[in-house]
Description:
Blueprint: H1 4-9, H2 11-20, H3 27-65, H4 69-104, E1 125-130, H5 143-149, E2 153-154, H6 155-161, E3 168-169, H7 171-190, E4 194-196, E5 201-202, H8 204-209, E6 222-223, E7 228-230, H9 235-240, E8 246-248, E9 254-263, E10 282-292, H10 297-314, E11 319-323, E12 335-343, E13 348-359, H11 361-366, E14 369-371, E15 378-379, E16 381-389, H12 390-400, E17 407-408, H13 414-417, E18 421-422
Parallel strand pairs: 4-9, 8-14
Antiparallel strand pairs: 1-11, 2-3, 5-7, 6-7, 9-10, 10-16, 11-12, 12-13, 13-16, 14-15, 17-18
Amino acid sequence: MLQVPFIRQNKELVLERLALKNFxxxxxxxxxxxxxxxxxxxxxxxxxxxxxxxSLSKEIGKLMAQGKKEEGEAQRAAVNALKEKxxxxxxxxxxxxxxxxxTLVKLPNLPAAxxxxxxxxxxxxxxxxxxxxxxxxxxxxxxxxxxxxxxxxDFELGNKITGSGFPVFQKQxxxxxxxxxxxxxxxxxxxxxxxxAPPYLVNEASAFGTGQLPDKEGQMYHAxxxxxxxIPTAEVPLTNIYRDEIxxxxxxxxxxxxxxPCFRREAGSYGKDVRGLNRVHQFDKxxxxxxxxxxxxxxxxxxxxxxxxxxxxxxxxxxxxxRLCGGDMSFASAITxxxxxxxxxxxxxxxxxxxxxxxxxxxxRMKIRFKEANGKPQLTHSLxxxxxxxxxxxACVLENNQTEAGIPLPxxxxxxxxxxxxx
Length: 423
């Protein structure tokens, strides 16, 4: 979440940046400042009253020791009166602090200066393209037909077991999924990331820490009896590993990677690119997370973008990189680059990765700090990116490489899959 001192010192900039993100409830900025003023006033009143209590309490002992019992009792009565005043002030202060916090978390992160204006995905800025879009035979088919032909994925069985959006991978399809997960993890490990296998459910504090709550509760599956949330991405448990921690500046950057299934309700997405693997409720993904020194986060962002780009190049997939406009960014992001791969059979671009810098927005919620030698603890910056999400990658690998004699696979997957093609 944003920091109140920054809002106070940069109110006009905050309003300008919120407008770039097309955030309408800008009145919350004034509410935050007014609540902070009230908090300061109540804190001062409480502290001054407590100081009086402490001072008068010391005098009571002196008066009693001098035999001045009546004066001592009068002083005691004055102390009791002040203590009675402290209770309501403390209650009002606690209530004000809670209201301030609840109001502050309604403000999204501020977009970075290089984020382009715009309200819709059509206004995102293409940064560059890579790879070659294949020319398929006239009888080429989309991945859901290939999945049926080669018995790779059973969408109807998933619907029977659970419901729509929960495909069952089988035979060569299950093996290809496992091969890609292993390759993605090894690729990340070879580039300096440390692997974790985190839980698939998180508590409310963890979901709040990365910004899923209170913004995206409608998109998450909620185990209500235990108040746990199924993770929408490994970003949530990985980043929370360092919640409430103070790390040494020499420990930075912290690079983490992990494979998890991801669970998303995708409420409101029905009818939009939902065929086959294009949009599902459960999918596998390998994630990247970095916790870095604030002076190094944009350098880390460029590094992560280059890392994902190199991974896509190794899979020989045509891709493009988009810098998202203000209106298409997530609530918590300061800047996001989307990677899309081209589905030759469907003739459309499909998003397969987002790489984002959150600056201090997440780390302020989680109190992830670092301490320089003899220095005061400061907030780190956090970043994350998909490396990669499996469903649409698999869809494009299948579609773009299809031939009459089978589906040749990218060379980097051969040793993981145990063969050079799906036959």
